Amino acid sequence: MELSDLLASRIRDVPDWPKPGVVFKDISPLLADHEVFTALVNALADHCAESGVQKVVGIEARGFILAAPVAYRAGAGFVPVRKQGKLPCATFAESYDLEYGSATLEVHQDAFAPGERVLVIDDVLATGGTVAATISLVRRTGAEVAGVSVLLELGFLAGRAKLDGLLPDPAVRSFLTI
Prior knowledge:
The structure is a single chain. By secondary structure, the chain is an alpha/beta fold. The protein has helices at about 5-10, 30, 35-50, 60-75, 130-140, 160-165, and strands at about 10-15, 25, 55-60, 75-85, 90-100, 100-110, 115-125, 145-155, 170-175. The chain has a 7-stranded mixed sheet, sandwiched between helices. The protein has a two-stranded antiparallel sheet with strand order 1-2. Strand 7, helix 5 and strand 8 (about 145-155) form a beta-alpha-beta unit. Helix 3 (about 35-50) crosses helix 4 (about 60-75). The radius of gyration is 15 Å and the shape is globular. The two termini are about 20 Å apart.
């Protein structure tokens, strides 16, 4: 079975959550399936190796679940990008809009060395605001964003277009697009 088919078989739709009109993509069944989770982590780690990165960023919260094992597998460091007010030291902050509201993300100012190559990982690319904000945060530290990997891309929301010009092509990799 193709990886995209395997992944799709373990993602369930939850209508009207967290707000009416939103269809939440629940990856819990995927995470609970050792074979599928391992296949995804390996594919993400391969992208990490191809990109020659020293650090892997996970975006709160489900991005943490994917990025941490990828960093471990790829021999890279892991850096969390968190919601505002969750990090204890000096941070850079970036506000953005998402498909059902707005938010602010932060990263420690000393999370990366200047020039370090970084791979950003998240579970879903929707409108692109979260990933664009994260790219901005990484760049503010002096590091270089080598690419973005997402489990699932919601193509109908055109989030990839928001990233045009922010990354060299083909720096965005999604393993499943709907």
